[in-house]
Amino acid sequence: MFRAFIFIILLMSSSLFAEEFLSDIKLKEIEEKIITKLDKKKLGEEREFYLNLLMARELYTYEKYSFAKKYFQKVRSSKFSADKTEALIGLAQISFQENNKTELKKDLLNLEAFYKKNPKFSSGRNQDLIKYYKFIGLKEKKHGRSEFKNLKNEILEFNITEEKRRNFIIEKKYKEAFKLIDNPGINTLNVGYKIEHDLLNVLVNKKMIKAEKLHCFEKMKKYPKDWSYSILICTSLTEYLKKGRVSSKSLHNLERYFKKRATNRKHLLSALKGLQ
Question: Which parts of 171-247 fold into alpha helices (H)?
Answer without folding.
Answer: 174-181, 191-205, 217-222, 229-243
